[in-house]
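Quiz preparation item.
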């Protein structure tokens, strides 16, 4: 994801985000990646849209050089600030993509494992900017925990990417009527069930034809949908007695 100011916010490659190894190992030596807790067979997802530019199939025995990654893949994403951006996913049990494949953020690309140079199953995740491995945590949001207080997270001045707030859900107004007294009472009970009356989001008023006009809202699209279903059951839609409008 690219934020409005151009900042890159990557998706987490796993559904659960428990950090077992940071950009530096616990002894301060370089790791140049993060390790995430992942039992063998945990689904692994693409961190952003991109093109698979490297896949490695582990030979089953060598744990040096690039074979130390085991079964692994790399994705090239859109550049940022004139620099190339890639992510790498290593120690997989299975790779589901091939070089040249276009992938979308959140797409299943493989399963975690313990291939290559490992002491146990996990996902090794890298962010590579212009060929240099950077701390992945500064490209992700803060939705993670660490397996122990010793796990390295950020250097001074570093921190997570702030995820923008989700836009407010669109609100709608439901207008019914003119209704008979019986139908109006049904919608009053419906409004009480949704908690609309306590919030002042229900009103009933006399309609010109002698019936009752009921107004619900502003309500969520989900609540408006339930009102439509109830109106369908009562046959009100067929008679043109329901209107759902954007809330002002």
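Solution:
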């Amino acid at each position: 994801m690219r934020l409005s100011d151009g900042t890159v916010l990557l998706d987490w490659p796993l559904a659960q985000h428990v950090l077992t190894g940071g950009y530096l190992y616990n002894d301060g030596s370089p790791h140049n990646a993060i390790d995430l807790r992942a039992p063998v067979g945990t689904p692994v997802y693409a961190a952003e849209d991109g093109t698979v530019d490297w896949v490695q199939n582990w030979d089953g025995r060598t744990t040096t050089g690039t074979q130390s990654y085991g079964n692994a893949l790399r994705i090239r994403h859109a550049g940022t600030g004139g620099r190339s951006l890639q992510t790498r996913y290593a120690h997989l049990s299975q790779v589901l993509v091939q070089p040249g494949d276009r992938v979308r953020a959140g797409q299943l690309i493989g399963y975690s494992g313990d291939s290559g140079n490992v002491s146990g199953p996990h996902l090794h995740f890298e962010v590579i900017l212009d060929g240099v491995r950077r701390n992945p945590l500064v490209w992700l949001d803060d939705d993670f925990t660490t397996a122990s207080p010793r796990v390295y997270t950020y250097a001074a001045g570093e921190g997570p990417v702030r995820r923008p707030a989700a836009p407010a859900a669109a609100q709608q107004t439901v207008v019914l009527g003119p209704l008979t007294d019986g139908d109006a009472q049904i919608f009053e009970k419906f409004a009480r069930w949704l908690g609309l009356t306590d919030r002042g989001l229900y009103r009933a008023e006399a309609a010109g034809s002698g019936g009752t006009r009921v107004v619900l809202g502003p309500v969520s699209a989900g609540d408006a949908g339930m009102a439509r279903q109830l109106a369908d059951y009562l046959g009100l839609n067929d008679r043109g007695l329901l209107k759902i409008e954007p809330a002002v």
